[in-house]
Amino acid sequence: MTQYFKLLAFTALVSFALGGCGPSNSSDDAPEADTHDHGADDGQDHGEEGQSNALDAEAGHTEDDGHDHGEEGQSHDPDAEAGHTEDDGHDHADHEGEEEMVIQLDAHELAEFGIQLEIAQSGTLVESTSLAGEIVLNPDRIAHVVSRADGIGLEVLRTIGDRVEAGEILAILESPALAESKADYFSKAAQAALASTDLARAETIHVNTNKLLEIIALNPDLSTLQSEISGLDIGANRSNLITAYAELRAAEVAYHREKNLFDRQNTSTSEFLHAESELGKALATFQSVRDDLSFSNQRGLDLARRTNLVTQVSLQAAERRLHALGLDENEVDQVEDELDDHLARYEIRAPLGGLIIERHLVRGESIQAGEQVFVIADLSSVWGQLTLYQRDLAHVYEGQMAQVLGTHNLETTTVKIEYISPILDEQTRTTTARVELDNSEGHWRPGMFIRAELIASEQDASVLVPRSALQEIDGETVVFVETAKGLERRDVRVGRLDANSAEIISGLRPGERYVARGGLALKVELNKAALEHAGHAH
What pLDDT is stored for residue 63 in this prediction? Predict the structure, then answer.
């Protein structure tokens, strides 16, 4: 500041000399002028000098300066003139310098200039690492919708920009392959139903046949046997076994009659032997029919079970083919009731809710199975891919909290770093760190550039102010402090810095009120006052 005032004084003196103020003679001539009488020539000179002083006053000198020059024109006392100039300049500089250091503003002016006052206090310096990146789609929330069957586009119900729900119909195809699969399923379902019916009857016949064999093993008479098996579903086994059993019973009766007669010698040996032979034949026939019936009965049941299993497997295979084409359980169950013109109707549905961002199907277009027709993205959640250089690897780790800032005045959001790729790109020698952002409001758009601030360390400071409080004046760092006289400029010594704050080592004490924001307006006011003072001195 001292140099600043010296410069102002020097400028005023130069202006004074160039303007013709004061005598133009050297200091050696001044005493000689005092020793001579004032003649006509002197009067003429003084008149010209007074005229010159009047012109100087017109050019910008103050009334006081003009008055001094007038007195100077009459007295021509160099000592008095020098003493007056020195004393007046000294007092004026001290007074103006003191006023320049303090600015007085009322509450209205403070609000008008946007000046905010805060109390100096301790705080925490935060060292952070800044990473650049961009918003990308969340791969877990993207669906590439493909056609699962060959077909031709009949209707396209949704297009790019439409929001859809999971399960909503997007397009309808005419698919001969789907019609064939449905027809095959219908056929397999009918076969499975018949096989199931046959199995149930085979099980019934098996149970009843076993019951018949158990009854016959008790050697009942024919009337008792008929009453026991009456109403049982035995099938062809019934007549074969009962016939053989009846013949056996008849042969036994004939044998016993001939044997009695033969024992009483009332019949011939040949008749007895014939009856005995017939009994043996009947017994052999019965045993053969019984064993064959027991075997065939089990074999029939096993065959029915196998047939039913095969048809069920075929039916399940046909059903799975329909599921592979996108049909759910309800749609498969309704295949048997569908009309013929609906068998080829293939509906492409949305696998998840979201926004359609791509469409690759128009009416009449033929597409193949596996061909992509839509892309749906759920933008309620997106990823932030942050570029990580080698120098940042020591300061960034998974689980670290990061403040993510976007463009267009988006609010800052704090998220956690979920993943850091362990592989660096061979060309750029960078890797990526991933964060997941909640985008329910739709502010984060894929492709948008972002910046993330990661806290590296924290250090305490006894006095911490925002960097907006610091001003640079005449090469000095200053802070405006509120005092009883007004807002006073005060030189401060700055210590450590972070992105937003500065540590004050000296010049500002805890508890003092200072200008935290709007100090630039005060700096302008000081410069304005200095310029006015310079003009006043001139």
Answer: 38
Q: Which amino acid is at 514?
A: Y
CA–CA–CA angle 177, 183, 188 (5° rounding): 125
End-to-end CA distance of the chain: 19
Confidence at residue 536, expressed as pLDDT on a 0 to 100 scale? 59
Question: Which is more confident, 155 or 340?
Answer: 155
DSSP string across 133-161: EEEEE-GGGEEEEE-SS-EEEEEE---TT
Other beta carbons within 10 Å of 82 = 12
Q: In the prediction, which pLDDT does 155 show?
A: 94
Go through 56-79 and write b for each residue having 16 or more CB atoms within 10 A of its CB, e for each that does not: bbeeebeeebbebbeebbeebebe
| Tokens linked to 272 | 């007895």
The CA distance from 470 to 463, in Å, is: 13
Q: Which of 468, 473, 472, 507 is nearest to 491 (CA)?
A: 507
Q: What is the pLDDT of residues 174-231, one digit of tens each?
A: 999 999 999 999 999 999 999 999 999 989 888 888 888 888 888 888 788 777 777 7
SS3 7: helix
The three-state secondary structure class of 351 is coil
Which pLDDT tens digit goes with each residue over 117-130?
Answer: 999 999 988 888 88
Contact (CB, 8 A) for 526 and 3:
no
Q: What residues does 417 pair with on adjacent strands?
A: 435
Name residues whose C-beta falls within 8 Å of residue 160's C-beta, 6 or more positions apart in sequence.
Answer: 356, 357, 358, 359
The helix/strand count (H/E) of the chain reads as: 12, 22
Strand pairing category for 116-119 and 345-349: unpaired
Going by the DSSP 8-state scheme, the letter that residue 342 receives in this structure is G
Q: CA-to-CA distance for 469 and 459, rounded, in angstroms?
A: 20
Q: Which two tokens stand for residue 146?
A: 């493909």
- Tell me the pLDDT tens digit for each residue of 84-105: 444 444 444 444 444 456 888 8
Rounded Cα gap, residues 430 and 123, in angstroms: 35
